[in-house]
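Sample entry was shown:
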Amino acid sequence: MKKNYDLIVIGTGTAGSSTAQACKKAGWTVAIIDRRTYGGTCPQRGCDPKKVLVGAAEWMDWKERMAGKGLSGDARIDWKDLMAFKKTFTEPIPENTEKKFKELGIDGYHGEAKFESDTQIRVGDDVITGNKIVIATGAQPVKLGLDGEDLMIHSDDFLDLEELPKKIIFAGGGYISMEFAHLAARVGAEVEVIHGGERPLEQFDPDLVDLLVKRSEQVGIKIHLNTRVRSVEKNGKTFTVTAERDGEKQTFTGDLVVHGLGRAPALDIDPEKGHVNFGDKGGVQVNEYLQSVSNPNVYAAGDAAETSAPPLTPISSKDSAAVIQNLLHGNHTPIVYPVVPSVAFTVPKIASVGMTEEEAKKSNQKTKVTYQEITDWFTFKRTNEQAAAFKLITNAERGTVLGAHFLGDNADDLINHFSTAIRLELTFEEMKKTIFAYPTGASDIGSMLNEVK
């Protein structure tokens, strides 16, 4: 079948769905394609189901911290029941998403999308033509080229495990590995993380990560640093991971190996036929309007686009808003990213926004770094928190925050307050004028700013 459209969108996640719906409501003819179930990664195989599962891990950690301090009795996480609860969020998404597209009059296609020309896409036996094409295909696990790579499961597989194995090996020490490691440890699994760098979660503040590593080890997570995975083998039901540290071979055995060694743009779309060029990070090379630099008919958004922004869900929303404007009204909305907060949902959480301490040292501004562990503050002492700290990077002359970094149960909420303060360039005095409900995590903000001397 051949059919022409004003717009073809590849990908049904946050960026793709928003763009398709907005253009259809503006009167365009629109087709949307996905090789997987409709709805995208975040609500089905990423952020949302992960947060549901991590919530149980946080509860378990709370119970263990408060044992003998008012809480007693035996309790455990029932993995099957927890997964059944998770499915109440994820299972309706594909059908609901497809239904919404049909109600709007968006033509849906299922299958691999491949370029046939600058304006043509093949999906199975169908070849469709689009005046404009938006690539919003998200990311996928990076291909490692290791022996036995196919024996490792990916994050979406982990989120669908019917049973949690007794011993799990996580290859890599990024978001996926560390978040799932904390979850699995609280369920009762034996967990090992093999990471090639000096510390896991390298995007976050080193001092806070060191505290998190210490806490991770306290709950039974074994973290092997400066150790690179070289191969994976399977013997019966047991997996053997061969790794290397300082030139010496090390082996680890477990019931499951999880790929946590990074993700890359999912762009198996025959880009050469569409004259779509990729950048150094594997994303579509785009200009300031998120338009392909090599094919003006094509735009890209989210993880598929080569930009300076981190691969986070809010960026997909930001990108799609710009792409929508530029499609409907011509290129007039350049993409500009404000400071972007980031959170790893370990237990406790770790969060970061703005300038790092390393960047502060290289900055031409007169900066000050304030770091403090705060487990003795009421907010954390009342729940017997074992690891909590903050680090603020401030402009010593203007009295403004340039960067903020938190470790603790409320790190995800605190980081949003400081993200707002940095974007609006609020001074300490202006921030202190805000009256926060007490006692809450936000009510500690004034005390943190008072520590900046």
Remarks:
- Residues 153 and 258 are 5 Å apart (CA to CA).
- The chain is about 30% helix and 25% strand.
